[in-house]
Amino acid sequence: MTRWTVTAVVLLVAGLLPAIVVTSRGRLGRRLVGYETAQIVAVLVVLCLAQASDRTSYVDVALLLAVLSPAAALVFTKFFTGDD
In this structure, how many other beta carbons lie within 10 angstroms of the beta carbon of residue 25? Predict the structure, then answer.
């Protein structure tokens, strides 16, 4: 395992799991913060895995995820507020 792979695993355990727990419980504001944190950590994990495997196409996936994250947060908020 390279240090990039270790970093990705640490980010998954220390960053993504708590963000998922926060996203699944509590008020809408806290859920949204957990969701945004999970998206940021997911981008970082994909970037670390891209460095670990030396594949530049994975960087494109991370970039796409980072660009689409704000739109996904808007959909998340619209879905849970129930506004029509």
Answer: 10
In whole angstroms, give the CA distance from residue 15 to residue 51: 19
Looking at every residue in the chain, the average pLDDT score rounds to 88
pLDDT recorded at residue 4: 92
55-78 CB burial, b ≥16 within 10 A, e <16: eeebeeebeebbeebeeeeeebee
**Sign of the CA dihedral with 49 first, then 34, 25, and 68 last:** negative
Rounded CA gap, 80 and 24, in Å? 12
Which residues of the chain fall below pLDDT 70? 82-84
- Rounded to two decimals, what is the model's pTM? 0.83
Tokens of 61: 């996936």
